[in-house]
Amino acid sequence: MQKKVLIAGGLCGTTMLMAGEKLTERCRQEGISLQVTIQNLWETTYVAGRYDLIVEMFPFFQDQPCPVLSGKPFISHVGEKALVEQVVKLLCGGGLSEVV
Amino acid sequence: MLYFDYAATTPVDAQVIDAMAPYFTESFYNASALYQGGRKARQAVQKARSQVAQLLGAKPEELLFTSGGTEADNTAIIGGALAARAKDPRRRRVLFSAVEHHAVGESCRFLETLDFEAVELPVDSRGRLLPETLAQQVGEDTALVSVMWVNNEIGTIQEIPRLAEIAHRAGALFHTDAVQAVGTQPLCFQDSGVDLMSVSAHKIYGPKGCGALAVRTGIEITPLLRGGQQESGRRGGTENVPAIIGFGKAAQLLLERREEDVQRMQERKMRVLSALCGEDVLCNSPLDCTAPSILNLAFRDVEAEGMLFCLDREGICLSMGAACNSKSVEPSHVIRAIGLPPAYERGCLRISFGRGQSEEDCDLLTEKILRFCAILRR
């Protein structure tokens, strides 16, 4: 199963890169092949293509066709594991409402 | 566009541009040339030197023009420490406060590659270096002490004359980075007891690429830029005549306007502070010990970068006290030095004031910040 995730935020690409690696590794364990795109919103806010999920490092996205989760835990490292699990559940087909 | 980032840089005053223009065109000459055009350019440089010296309360011959505050800091610290040690080989330590601008911190750390010891001194929760903290650390092995007059992130005003006196009792040189101070503080180089003082033109409505280092008569520094004999042999390189002229004009205008500037800034700072302070906001720039030009506020559970992003999309410019490093947006060294609770560390915004901001501008700014705070805390 292949899924596409956009991680969008600001100055620190490294924080987003590391978030992408954590999500990719965890999803691989569930048989999900993740294609992660990193986007610096300071450079462009245009979202090219469709995604199965967006992780925003600060609130920006509205009215997106896919779920949008806050990536704040990847910055503060508080609740990071729970967020990763939430992403896996979502990508495995569980809707947002099913995700506790 | 609403500009609330005067501490980053200021717009160049129209009169400054007018003063600079001829030196880009008909008076383009090299100020070291012997023919009439060159001599006129030299006279104009000397006039600008007097204007900046008058602003700083220094003698014109004590002023050394540089490419900006960073070069002035490097020259003062590296040049001052090397010269001090050449005179007295025991002097191998340089002391600096934990809230210094990177130009000072990195210059001090660079000296460690030249067999000096760089010692960072802690500050209190308001960012002040306490005189007793300096007194405990300074000694006969100290070459130089560097403490900035006004902090560029939170606006803390240091007790410079008293700190300079403590340094001098141990025979150490005292440098102050006054880049953020000169726009609001009536500082006087002669009376301050300071040996070396850095300033920059683009913080006082002058051009970028120009600053100055005031070097007290009798103090020796080892030049960093070697080449020609410009600036009395202390700084090689063809003078940036237009920028120096602009700096002189900006200095003259500031002398005329500073009192009114300060009054206006205090009013704007109070207006914004009273609109934003609340239980979820910490003020890092209390009115009694910070410059009127800077207001640093910490917002609980808010990502400052997210706030900046939202405000930028509304055409509002301000800054955050954070440095991006390779891992994530970390709180700046200044914010860490004053020690905020974790929930506030990443939510620091610097709002800085200057000419041309109306009360309506302030009200619009605070309204937007409060609105985005609610969104960012979701």
Report on this model:
The complex is a heterodimer of chains A (100) and B (378). Chain A is 34% helix and 23% strand. With 100 residues, chain A is α/β, with parallel strands linked by helices. Chain A has a single domain (2-98), classed as 3-Layer(aba) Sandwich (Rossmann fold). A four-stranded parallel sheet of chain A has the order 2-1-3-4, with helices on one face. The longest helix of chain A is centred in the first third of the chain and has 17 residues, at 13-29. Chain A is globular, with a radius of gyration of 12 Å. Chain A starts with a strand and ends in a 9-residue tail after the last helix. Chain B has 378 residues and is of the alpha/beta class. Chain B folds into two domains: 2-8 and 258-377, Aspartate Aminotransferase, domain 1, CATH 3.90.1150; 14-253, Type I PLP-dependent aspartate aminotransferase-like (Major domain) (Aspartate Aminotransferase, domain 2, 3-Layer(aba) Sandwich), CATH 3.40.640.10. Chain B is 41% helix and 16% strand. Chain B is built from 13 helices and 15 strands. In chain B, helix 7 links the parallel strand 6 and strand 7 (196-200). The longest helix of chain B is centred in the C-terminal third of the chain and has 36 residues, at 241-276. Chain B is globular. Residues 323-327 of chain B have low confidence and may be disordered. The A-B interface holds A 9-12, 14-15, 18, 41-42, 57-60, 70, 72, 74-76 and B 303, 305-306, 308-310, 312, 324-329, 346, 375-376, 378.
Please state the CA-atom Rg of chain A, rounded to the nearest Å: 12 Å
What is the strand content of chain B? 15-25%
Order of helices and strands of chain B: EHHEHEHEHEHEHEEHHEEHEEEEHHEH
Spans of at least 5 consecutive residues with low confidence of chain A: 95-100
Instruction: Tell me the name of the CATH class of the largest domain in chain B.
Output: Alpha Beta
Shape of chain B: globular
Looking at CATH, the homologous superfamily of chain A is Response regulator
